[in-house]
Amino acid sequence: MDNIINLQKKIVPELSELLVLRYQVLRQVSHEAPIGRRALAGRLGLSERVLRAQVDFLKNCGLLNFSPLGMYVTEEGEEILKELADYVRKLQDLSSLEALLSERLNIARVVIIPGDCDQEDVVKREIGRAAAGILIGLISDGSEHVVAVSGGSTMAAMAANVSGSAPKTVVVPARGGLGDNVEDQANTIASVLARRFGAKYKQLYVPDGVSEDILNSILAEDVTVKSVVEVIRRADILVHGMGRADIMAVRRGLSEEILRKLSEEGAVGEAIGQYCSLEGKVVYVTNNAGLMVNDLVHINKVIGLGGGKSKAEAILSVIRASRQDILITDEAAAKAITEILAVDNKV
Fold first, then answer.
1. pLDDT on residue 321
2. Residues 317 and 233 in one domain
3. Three-point CA angle 249, 250, 251, nearest 5°
4. 135 with 253, same domain?
5. What is the pLDDT of residue 347?
6. 224 or 55, higher pLDDT
């Protein structure tokens, strides 16, 4: 396939550009259906005239359809969209970038989605969709699994894209809640995943960041919470998001004193309550009844999700601070990470 793609790019480069454009149209409609032509043109930054030609072509191919409420992707279109994702990655040389980051970061598998989460919300949803596909593959062997999940909008996108049957699987929140939007909390994501898999789930009703004394008291006195924590710590699969330390610290309601500590010690990234410097030093960890940093060594598969150029340092800091087996990110973050690595090599 690589030889065919290279020939295509050299002989008919305009065909490659057209294919990527039509892929972007299908992808956007898939996530926002039903959507009108004007709204779609705005999302993609295209004129209505240019967009009309593409949607008419896709409709004639049976990949798009129209209703009074707007456009939507047909079943055939959805199947082709899945197949196109890998082809577009190769077409845009993202497979080479995946291999490079896999080697440089010592991660078994890197998946890069075209685009930038900071600019296109649809890219975040595509990261979620890719994570869903990988998770389905991991638990479809019929074995017993305990899947731990963190919160966040990218994780919610993953939950929305899973399907299948895994009755022997138990889904649990990796940590307690942050007081965020209910739909983005780990408890909610765990329950949605479980319903879509036909699996069991457990809930953890302990806020993130409580004092150590309170946490120990809860674990000593609440048998239900203690039993849930025991299941969480048996997780063999962890899927978690990666965020910027400054943003996550505010969302967690950390004190001014801790915020100063994070700033002074150079914390740039956060995952499952651990705050990391760009060099991979864990500078602060919030108390929680769920998974902690030292628990990751006991988990069979750790999958990290995060995208956007603005999160490049955050993603790299988490990778350096903790083991990651699979990274799912976007093109903008991946390229920014390679630039950081290139600078580090020159220092």
1. 93
2. yes
3. 90
4. yes
5. 42
6. 55
